[in-house]
């Protein structure tokens, strides 16, 4: 099993302990196995979800022809026939977000319990920490793909409009069995978000904290801030970065770092950008800006547009300027 090696070169002592996590090789111990197995089922499905989303091309042409020729029944049927299976895929993505929320809930329960300090959890439960990182990596990747694919919302809007028209005209709709009105409303809210999976995780983390009132909020926020510090140190220190077997691991670390910052910003009372934050935001942003611009623009945008406290008055002008 990959060791968690203490990073002794960190100068930001006030930021707490930092570690080198072996994201590539960590394997579950017996104590981790039950939660790990449950989350592993979800993570295996996540790979297929990303593949399906990447291959999602939409029914734009068929929809345009149907709209331009409203009295042509064949074109209406063609567009409906093209959209219904696509909405089935969108339903699959949405339902997966609910399973992802459940997986995150289980991981947070394990990694923030009072049995250990947050730091000890990450030291002793490396495989769970890796799974938490994989959920964050998936989430940001999903949202990047969704944001660059306007066909998703266009297809779903056309589906809902057509379904409503069929109801008014008492026309039976084959697709309604798959996505009824109540589910369509929930899906509509989900896809209306710029970053729907990130919103799901943020809401799930906030809900976890509110449901576990006997658990100090610091157990959750310290888990997130420690993970952010770990990623930052690994990325900015050549000695540690050279341990990655694949350059993909660097991309993985960048996504995880941004993901935990956003979660921290939603869960912590004053957020990630305030002076009292345990996350070194200047250092994290610098690490992002040191990468090739085209490879991190989506992550910088996630910090700019999906965090909660960036535009607060308490956020330093220096940090705001770094994200301009």
Q: For the largest beta sheet, what order do the strands appear in spatially?
A: 1-2
State the low-pLDDT regions, or none. Answer: 1-17
Category from helices, strands and their pairing:
mainly alpha
The total count of strands amounts to 2
Q: Give the % helix.
A: 55-70%
What's the rounded overall pLDDT mean? 87
For the termini, the CA-CA separation is 41 Å
What does this structure look like?
It is elongated, with a radius of gyration of 22 Å. Helix 3 (73-111) runs parallel beside helix 8 (196-211), helix 5 crosses helix 11 and helix 11 packs parallel to helix 13 (293-305). It has helices spanning 33-54, 60-68, 73-111, 118-124, 126-147, 151-168, 181-192, 196-211, 217-236, 238-241, 248-267, 281-289, 293-305, 317-322; strands at residues 5-6, 19-20. The longest helix has 39 residues, at 73-111. Helices cover 67% and strands 1% of the residues. The two termini are 41 Å apart. With 324 residues, it is mostly helical. Strands 1-2 form a two-stranded antiparallel sheet.
């Amino acid at each position: 099993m990959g060791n968690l090696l203490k990073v002794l070169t960190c100068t930001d002592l006030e930021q707490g302990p930092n570690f080198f996590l072996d994201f590539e090789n960590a394997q579950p111990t017996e104590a981790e196995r039950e939660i790990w197995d449950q989350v592993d089922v979800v993570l295996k499905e996540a790979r297929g979800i990303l593949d399906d989303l990447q291959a999602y091309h939409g029914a734009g042409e068929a929809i345009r022809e149907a709209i331009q020729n409203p009295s042509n029944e064949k074109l209406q049927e063609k567009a409906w026939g093209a959209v219904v299976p696509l909405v089935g895929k969108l339903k699959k993505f949405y339902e997966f977000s609910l399973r992802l929320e459940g997986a995150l809930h289980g991981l947070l329960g394990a990694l923030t319990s009072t049995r250990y300090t947050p730091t000890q959890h990450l030291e002793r439960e490396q495989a769970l920490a890796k799974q938490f990182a994989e959920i964050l990596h998936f989430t940001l990747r999903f949202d990047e793909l969704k944001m660059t694919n306007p066909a998703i919302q266009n297809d779903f809007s056309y589906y809902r409009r057509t379904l409503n028209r069929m109801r008014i005209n008492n026309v039976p709709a084959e697709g309604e069995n798959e996505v009824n009105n109540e589910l369509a409303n929930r899906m509509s809210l989900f896809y209306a978000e710029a970053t729907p999976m990130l919103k799901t995780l943020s809401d799930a983390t906030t809900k976890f904290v509110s449901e576990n009132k006997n658990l100090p909020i610091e157990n959750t926020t310290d888990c997130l801030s420690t993970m952010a510090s770990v990623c930052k140190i690994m990325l900015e220190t050549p000695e540690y970065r050279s341990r990655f077997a694949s350059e993909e691991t660097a991309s993985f670390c960048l996504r995880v770092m941004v993901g935990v910052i956003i979660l921290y910003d939603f869960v912590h009372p004053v957020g990630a950008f305030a002076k009292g934050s345990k996350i070194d935001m200047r250092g994290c942003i610098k690490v992002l800006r040191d990468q090739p611009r085209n490879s991190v623009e989506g992550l910088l945008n996630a910090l700019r547009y999906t965090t909660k406290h960036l535009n607060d008055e308490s956020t330093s002008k220096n940090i705001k300027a770094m994200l301009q």
